[in-house]
Amino acid sequence: MPKTDLKQQLVERFLEVNGDHPMTDADDAYVSAQFVVLEELCAGLGREADAVRRLMLGQRLPLPGYLRSDGAEMVPADLCVLADEAGGTDLLEAWFTAHWADPITGKAEWNAYLSGQYVCLHSVTPATIQRKDHLTTAIDAAVNEPDAGSVRWSERLHALVDELDTLEPAFTAYDRLRFGGPTSRDTCIDAVRARFPRP
């Protein structure tokens, strides 16, 4: 299959998953600072870019996180690390989903991972996905705790927010378009800090 066909198929799949939203200059700058061009990553790892594209299209590696406005497929620098840890792409799905006790949740997380949309984490691993879920749930629940508003409560809340802050990048305007609204950083970090300032 010619390279252009694989690249075009990947673009089409990406748009299917994310919708067709324009990337601004600010989006491109953000993505270039946070992610790596697929060809450059593959060259550094001694892998064929087309072989990696086939794995993405075959649902064995995640789709790119972004398509820059020049068409570059932007991927995390650690794109292949989990597959290596699992013992190869053939073993990755079983290794990944085994991190969840409930197979249905594990499969749902695997599908989310393959979408390439886990751009909400600096490093995407089962452990960081689970930790992010725990933190966002705890932050959302905090306002209903019996001691809400107390100094001790505020310290607990801000410890959760600070930890989430270390896991999540800044996001960009493009993310708010493709996700159809505010990001978890908007709702669980920035909004919480604005609503409940540190004592």
What fraction of the residues are assigned to beta strands by DSSP? under 5%
Based on secondary structure, the structural category is mainly alpha
Straight-line N-to-C gap: 61 Å
Instruction: Name the average pLDDT.
Output: 96
Helix and strand run: HHEHHEEHHHHHHH
Instruction: Count every beta strand, where a strand is a DSSP E run of 2 or more residues.
Output: 3
Principal-axis shape equals globular
Please list the strands of the largest sheet in the order they lie side by side.
1-3-2
Give Rg in angstroms: 18 Å
- Number of H/I helices: 11
Low-confidence segments, given as residue ranges, are: none
Biggest sheet features: 3 strands, antiparallel
DSSP helix fraction: 55-70%
Please give a structural write-up.
This protein has 199 residues and is mainly alpha-helical. Helix content is 61%, strand content 4%. The protein contains 11 helices and 3 strands, in the order ααβααββααααααα. The protein is globular and about 60 Å long. The model has no long low-confidence stretch (mean pLDDT 96).
